[in-house]
Amino acid sequence: MKKFSLFAATCLVIFIGCRSNDKENKALAEFKNVNQSVVRSFSDLNAQDTFKIELTGRKPEDIMLIFNIKKADGKEIYKIKLKGTDLLRSTDPNVDLSKEKDQIAFLKTIANNFFLEDNFLEPAVIPSDKPDSYVPDKAFYEELKKSGLNGFKYRLGKENNLYIAWSDKAQKVKIYYNCC
Fold first, then answer.
1. Partner of 66 for a Cys bridge, out of 54, 60, 84, 158, CB 3.0 to 4.6 A?
2. 92 backbone φψ class: left, alpha, beta (φ>0; ψ -120 to 50)
């Protein structure tokens, strides 16, 4: 009888252990990182560049938002890595992000909304636009007026949007507007 009780107890421990692992495995399987890409004209009005966003990590302190742009020939022309914790710190203080699950959901929302149509600016600068105090490089702003190249904007936080475009002159992506 002692052997049977010992066997039953061992089986119960194994069963409970397997059940908790099943829950953990199911939770891991349900978590999906964000990985999206779109093609748009950016560095050349006659070619399509690939914009890609990837959200990696399982916990806010491990999450990275990686954004890059590749020209039609495959050459990477822009890449930025943003820490999830930095994005959380620079958000609206009125948003309740005290729970980890809310932080993860918020970061996924940022990634999922990254390629909204409003973020693609065609052209980057309208010829009649005048530069203001948020334009870091007035010569580049004027270059964009003449080239008619497209722009892209993305959010770094509550009051921080970066507007980027390709500079034919510098042969790289540059910020042409940094504002609220």
1. 54
2. beta
Q: What is the pLDDT of residues 57-75, one digit of tens each?
A: 989 999 999 999 999 999 9
pTM of the predicted model, to two decimals?
0.80
| CB-based contact 129:176 (threshold 8 Å) | no
The two tokens of residue 14 are 């194994």
Name the band, by pLDDT with cuts 50, 70 and 90, for residue 8: very low
